[in-house]
Amino acid sequence: MPDVVVVGAGVIGAACAEALSAAGVDVTVIDRGTPAGGTTASGEGNVLVSDKEPGPELTLAIASRREFGVVLARLPEQVADVEWEAKGGLVVAKGEPEPLEKFAKTQREAGVDARVISPADAFELEPLLTRAVTTAVYYPDDAQVQPVLLATALLAAVRARGGEVRAGVTAIAVRQKDGRVTGVETEAGVIECDAVVNACGPWAGSFGTAAGGPIEILPRRGMILVTAPLPECVRHKVYDADYVGAVGSGDADLQTSTVVESTRAGTVLIGSSRERIGFDDAVKVHVLRELARKAVGIFPFLADVPVMRTYGGFRPYAPDHLPVIGPDPRVPGLWHATGHEGAGIGLAPATGRLLTELFIGVPPHLDPSPFRVDRPAVVGVS
After folding, report:
1. CATH class of 4-78+146-217+320-379
2. What is the pLDDT of residues 326-381, one digit of tens each?
3. Which residues form the FAD dependent oxidoreductase domain (predicted)?
4. What fold characterizes domain 89-140+218-316?
5. Sheet containing 268-274: which strands, arranged edge to edge?
């Protein structure tokens, strides 16, 4: 019998399972689909400290950036190549430079390496950048990873330590006795355990309800364009200053902001969009057109580059823009790890570490209270 069943084999569930198993906890991971086949597969692989205002999420991001080295070193050798690239990020503005410079200053005060550079320096970093740029901030700690490779490698580490990963197993409810979790009910039967981790991403709200611990997690749709393979053309993660505002917005309407980056395969990823439209997965041509238009505004050469494909997915959105990490006080033995929206790849290592620290009862490496389950925005109490 496992100690813990993690429901959800995306990057957050995989990171929690890996950290728990590294601490000696017996873990089983289940997913109704294939591992890393949901939200994780629709991500860009962003590991960013540059897009977050000072506060709890930035603190988690800084900790997670440090934790990546620890986690990657624990991976089995045969799956250790997750296309990790510490390429750095470049945020550019084409208007008044003061807002971007002010934002960078507040981040530096919070411990981020944020370097305001001149347009000439920006063009040296990215020669194909539009000459309309008026100011830029360079973030050497921004990085990129292949999200599916990362999640599957984390799960491979769980298996290597004796844990189990089961695909195609749908969790239905949590079984309790004397007020504590005793197992998780699935379509394939009951898996007995002492604790259950709800890592269901944008579906965490519905599973939380089924488990007796409802939480307010909503899906937020995002779309990405993928170009045909190209010679080296975009060297860093490059995005416009509007990206920060879009990340932190709670507006349900469509928002787009430019983020452009290359992959090891030579393709260029173009994002990003955010829209709260439930689980509507229809391809919206007007969204793709807007992404392309804005990307050309940053990198004019993209106007002549063919788009090979597009993909999108649903990201787990919490109304106060903070992840939910920790025990559910209403159901002893039920834990949650969700609500990271589009930042789950970058926040996964610190999330796994924090949940594990709380689970085994050691002092956490950062203050867990901002991410607690029983906060008003998540459980709807005042």
Report:
1. alpha beta
2. 999 999 999 999 999 989 999 999 999 999 999 999 999 999 999 999 999 999 75
3. 3-358
4. D-Amino Acid Oxidase; Chain A, domain 2 (3.30.9)
5. 115-117, 135-139, 89-93, 237-240, 255-262, 268-274, 218-227, 307-317
